[in-house]
Design a protein that fits this description.
alpha/beta; UDP-n-acetylglucosamine1-carboxyvinyl-transferase, Chain; 2 domains; four-stranded mixed sheet; 24 strands; 31% helix; binds ligand EPZ
C-alpha cells in the first residue's frame, strides 16, 4: 500500500492548476444514465472515485470512454440501454456516492435494486432523506437485507418536497430523479452548494427544465426524454481551498489557477483574518505568507455558503502552528475529528469535546508516522507535514487518491519535498 513522505520546511512558490470537482463529476456521471445519447464531460478530474464510478456505470450498461480532449481530460458516457438495474453492496460500500445511481435508474428503467451504503468514518450518514424524496416522487421503496428495492413501473410524478434539513446528496438525488418525472417538482430547503448549480446546468444542457439551483428552492418541470450534451465540470473548490491552506501553512507565494475563488469566500475570509495575503485574480487566487506566524481564528462548519466541512481538517492543521487558541466547531458530521489524534502525533496541542475542537497553536511540529482516516483528513496530515521538522510519513493514502489528482506533483512543482513510497508496510491495515 502506498504512503506519502514529506520533509518539512520548504516554502511553496509557484502555480497550481485546479482540477474539475470530484463531488460534481460523480453526480454528472450518474446523470449520464438518464439518456440513451452520449454525455461528454470535459475538465474531468482523474481520480480513484471517478474511475470506480465508471466501472459501476459500465456494469449498468454505459460505455465509458476516458480520453484527452483539447482542454485536458474528458470522459464520454453513453448508455444506449440499461443492461442491469443492480448496484451491489460490494460496490456501494466502497464509494457511497454510488448510491446516487438509484434515482436515475428508477427514472429511466422504472426499477432498481441498490445497496444501502452503511456508515463511514466521518459519521452514520443515513440516506433517509434520499428515500423520502424518491417516495414522494412516486417510487415504491422496500428495504430488505441491506438493499433498497425501488419500483415505478409507470414512471415518477412531480411533487412538492421539503427537506427537514439541508442535504447535498438528497437534493442532487431528487433533482436527478425528477427531471424525467411527469409534472413539476419543487424542492424546498434545498442545498445551495455550487455542485448543485453545475448539475442543473448539465441537466439543462441535456434538455431538462431545472431552475433555482444555488438557492433553497429548486423547481423542476419533468420532460419525457433527455438527450446528449457536452458539459465542463466546475473547478474543485475543495482542492482550491486545500492548496490555499497549504500555501498559508508553508509560507511563500502560490498562484492557484483554473479556479473559482468566489466559491470559497468563507475560507478566504478566514485566511485573511488569520493574516495570510489573499489576492483574487481573473482565473483564481494568489495566497501569500512571508515570515510572521498566523493568528488563531475560530470557525464553524455550515452548509454553503458557510465554511465547508470538507476544509475543516485542513484548517485545523493550519491552526496547529498559529498564535493563540482556535475553536473549531463541526456541525455537519458527528465524527469528523479523526485527524485530531494524528495531528497530535506531530506535536499539535488539540482537545476535542463533542463537536468542538480547541487547537492551541505550538511553535513547531515534528515529523512522525501518521495514518489517514478519510480523504480530507489525509490531506490535513500532508499540510501539517509541510512545516513539521524532519520527515512525516502518511499511510493509507488510498483515501487521498480518491479525491486529489497528482497531489505530489502539484505540491512538488512549488518546491515541497513530497514523495510517494510505493508498496510498503503491510501491517498498516
Ligand atoms: C456531500 O456528502 C459530499 N460528498 C461530502 O464530501 C460533503 O462533506 C457533504 O456533502 C457536505 O458538504 C459528495 O458530494 C460525494 P449531506 P453528502 O447529505 O451528500 C445527514 C468529501 O470529503 N443526512 O449534505 O453525503 C448526513 O449524515 C465528502 O468529498 C441524513 O441524516 O452530505 C450529514 O450529517 C465527505 N440523512 C448531513 O445530513 C440523509 O438522507 C449532511 O449530509 C442525508 C444526509
Amino acid at each position: 500500500m502506498d504512503r506519502i513522505a514529506i520533509i518539512g520546511g520548504a516554502q511553496l512558490n509557484g502555480e497550481i492548476p485546479i482540477s474539475g470537482a470530484k463531488n460534481s463529476a460523480i453526480k454528472l456521471m450518474a446523470a449520464s444514465l438518464l439518456t440513451d445519447e452520449p454525455l461528454r464531460l470535459t475538465n474531468m478530474p482523474r481520480l480513484a472515485d471517478t474511475a470506480f464510478l465508471g466501472k459501476l456505470l459500465h456494469r449498468l450498461g454505459a460505455q465509458v470512454d476516458e480520453r484527452d480532449g483539447p482542454d485536458g481530460a474528458e470522459t464520454v458516457l453513453h448508455t444506449r440501454e440499461i443492461v442491469s438495474t443492480i448496484a451491489s453492496y460490494d460496490l456501494v460500500r466502497q464509494m457511497r456516492a454510488s448510491f446516487n445511481v438509484l434515482g436515475p435508474l428508477i427514472a429511466r428503467a422504472g426499477q432498481a435494486k441498490v445497496s444501502l451504503p452503511g456508515g463511514c468514518t466521518i459519521g452514520a450518514r443515513p440516506v433517509d432523506l434520499h428515500l423520502q424524496a424518491l417516495e414522494a416522487l412516486g417510487a415504491k421503496i422496500d428495504l430488505h437485507e441491506g438493499y433498497v428495492y425501488a419500483q415505478a413501473p409507470r414512471g415518477l410524478r412531480g411533487a412538492e418536497i421539503t427537506f427537514p434539513f439541508v442535504s447535498v446528496g438528497a437534493t442532487e438525488h431528487a433533482m436527478l430523479a425528477a427531471v424525467l418525472a411527469e409534472g413539476t417538482t419543487v424542492l424546498h430547503n434545498a442545498a445551495c452548494e455550487p455542485e448543485l448549480v453545475d448539475l442543473e446546468q448539465c441537466l439543462n444542457a441535456m434538455g431538462a427544465k431545472v431552475w433555482g439551483a444555488g438557492t433553497p428552492t429548486i423547481t423542476i418541470t419533468g420532460v419525457a426524454k433527455l438527450h446528449g450534451a457536452t458539459h465542463s465540470v466546475i473547478p474543485d473548490r475543495i482542492e482550491m481551498g486545500t492548496y490555499a491552506v497549504a500555501a498559508a501553512m508553508a509560507g511563500g507565494e502560490v498562484r492557484l489557477t483554473k479556479a473559482r475563488p468566489d466559491l470559497i469566500d468563507s475560507l478566504l475570509a478566514k485566511l485573511e483574518e488569520a493574516g495570510a495575503g489573499v489576492t483574487r485574480t481573473a482565473d483564481g487566487v494568489i495566497i501569500k505568507r512571508n515570515g510572521a506566524r498566523l493568528d488563531a481564528v475560530d470557525l464553524e462548519t455550515q452548509p454553503y455558503p458557510g465554511f465547508a466541512t470538507d476544509l475543516q481538517a485542513q484548517f485545523m492543521a493550519l491552526m496547529t502552528t498559529a498564535k493563540g487558541e482556535s475553536r473549531i466547531r463541526e456541525t455537519i458530521f458527528e465524527n469528523r475529528f479523526m485527524h485530531a489524534p494524528e495531528l497530535m502525533r506531530l506535536g499539535a496541542d488539540i482537545s476535542v469535546s463533542g463537536g468542538e475542537a480547541r487547537v492551541r497553536g505550538v511553535e513547531t511540529l515534528e515529523g512522525a508516522e501518521v495514518m489517514a482516516t478519510d480523504l480530507r483528513a489525509s490531506v490535513s496530515l500532508v499540510i501539517a507535514g509541510l512545516v513539521a521538522r524532519g520527515e512525516t510519513v502518511v499511510s493509507r493514502i488510498y483515501h487521498l487518491d480518491r479525491g486529489f489528482e497528482r497531489l505530489e506533483e502539484k505540491l512538488g512543482a512549488c518546491g515541497a519535498q513530497v514523495r510517494r513510497i510505493s508498496g510498503g508496510d503491510e501491517s498498516e491495515d
